[in-house]
Backbone:
């Protein structure tokens, strides 16, 4: 799968990790096993701030990067990396979350394999928040973070540029919105609401409707 912004739990299972997005509270995370191969994915979620929602179309969503296992079950955990705002203050947040449809996650876009998790962590933890820049948002942080990962040359496997990835994310969330994936108005059993809608860049198709 794809998409993600900050922190990762350890596990006894040997599986690849991927990235994704979500909204939630920060928590203490354990270190991931270094011997695993991982996948990076980008998730898109609705922001809780109605003011930002009125300011800009792109600001309707909260953007984050997530890293977690390729194969999931109900107990699977992942790490979310993103910039978060609380009481008018922006800060970097890295937190362990469930891979299920919680924290207002709308969609996930699977972007790339994580080749070196230590480099991914180092790069993401080094991306600053820049609230002093006009129009800077969580999307700005993810844009810079993803491009640093992509251009590093060692952290990730083959991956799309940010413009392509973000365009697909916006297109995909729009498609799911039009099909009433998030508002409960879709025909019964059309979607499995226990899973997050996911699109794979590598496969060029939706993997979870």
Residues:
């Amino acid at each position: 799968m794809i998409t993600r912004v900050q922190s990762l739990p350890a596990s006894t299972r040997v599986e690849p990790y991927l990235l994704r997005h979500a909204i939630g509270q920060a928590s203490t995370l354990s270190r991931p096993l270094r011997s695993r191969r991982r996948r990076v994915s980008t998730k898109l979620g609705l922001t809780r701030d109605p003011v930002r929602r009125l300011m800009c179309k792109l600001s309707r969503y909260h953007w984050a990067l997530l890293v977690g296992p390729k194969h999931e079950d109900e107990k699977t955990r992942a790490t979310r990396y993103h910039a978060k705002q609380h009481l008018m203050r922006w800060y970097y947040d890295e937190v362990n979350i469930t891979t299920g449809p919680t924290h207002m996650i709308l969609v996930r876009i699977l972007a790339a394999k994580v080749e070196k998790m230590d480099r991914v962590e180092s790069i993401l933890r080094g991306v600053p928040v820049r609230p002093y820049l006009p129009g800077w948002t969580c999307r700005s942080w993810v844009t810079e973070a993803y491009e640093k990962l992509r251009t590093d040359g060692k952290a990730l496997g083959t991956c799309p540029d940010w413009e392509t990835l973000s365009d697909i994310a916006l297109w995909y969330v729009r498609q799911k919105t039009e099909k009433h994936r998030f508002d409960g108005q879709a025909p019964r059993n059309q979607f499995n609401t226990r899973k997050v809608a996911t699109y794979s860049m590598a496969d060029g198709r939706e993997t979870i409707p």
Observations:
- Residues 17-208 form one domain.
